[in-house]
UniProtKB/TrEMBL annotation:
Keywords: Cell cycle, Cell division, Chromosome partition, Cytoplasm, DNA integration, DNA recombination, DNA-binding. It holds the Pfam family Phage_int_SAM_1. It comes from Pseudonocardia hierapolitana. It is found in: Cytoplasm. The gene is xerC. InterPro entries: CB (IPR044068), DNA_brk_join_enz (IPR011010), Integrase-like_cat_sf (IPR013762), Integrase_catalytic (IPR002104), Integrase_recombinase_N (IPR010998), Integrase_SAM-like_N (IPR004107), Tyrosine_recombinase_XerC/XerD (IPR023009), Tyrosine_recombinase_XerCD (IPR050090). HAMAP family: Recomb_XerC_XerD. The keyword Methyltransferase does not apply. One of its GO terms (biological process) is chromosome segregation. This is Tyrosine recombinase XerC. Forms a cyclic heterotetrameric complex composed of two molecules of XerC and two molecules of XerD.
Amino acid sequence: MSFPPELAPGPAAALEAFLQHLVLERGRSEHTVRAYRGDLAGLLEGMDGLEGLDLAWLRRWLAAGHEAGLGRATLARRAAAARSFTAWAHRTGLMAVDPGVRLASPRPRRSLPAVPTVEQTGAVLDAAGSGAAQEHPVALRDLLVLELLYATGVRVAELCGLDLDDVDPSRRALRVVGKGDRERTVVYGVPASDALRRWLAAGRPALARPGSPPALLLGARGGRLDTRVARRVVHQALAAVPGAPDVGPHGLRHAAATHMLQGGADLRYVQELLGHAKLATTQLYTQVTVERLKVVHEQAHPRA
């Protein structure tokens, strides 16, 4: 049953209640909730009440995104967010009907963006290593950002969310909390281990302040490293290598998976490394059958 019009919460209040539902009842992670907020804020912008949220409104919203040049994957994600919201609103009585049931969305193309080659990635990391030769703390941090992103395939938000307690240097392993608050352990090779040792010995102590958080990576002012800074580090590093594609941290994630599979890594190992809930997501990286993939990280990763 719907609320009486005079008692029904407005779109902004309904959105906040939905986001609380995601956190408290469905256990969604901070990153997932932030993504829902970004998508649904645009959907509800300019609305006086949820009674205007019908199928025509949803279709116009997606069409506007298409005209603005959004990709198929982004539009599909937005449509999924809208369907989740309208289903919740109908179930809780905020909407008399659920228009999202009839909302179709473009099927995202199952393809990968361009990724740097092994040689290009090696040139990026070698250049970052040369830049850190003088032991400047920011240069040491940027080297570690690049090495860990490529060595582990973690998402940039996962990397910037790491605390010191999440690092096990003796095992060369990181404890990572990914989407849906799923925890996994990822390993890294010798070059990343060397970059980590140098950062902990000289870089981090130089940037840390009395009020600094226990974050592994720090910004220039001693706070936790912002994901936007990490993205800028990756873009600038790749821009310095002739012929390398202009990709951000997710491009290094794709590169790690692609290069490992090219080297013979087991598909399910790469699935675990990347934190994919479904093997089908990892299969985007290769047309090779699982039976032909036999080698694990130390044999397959270019920087193991």
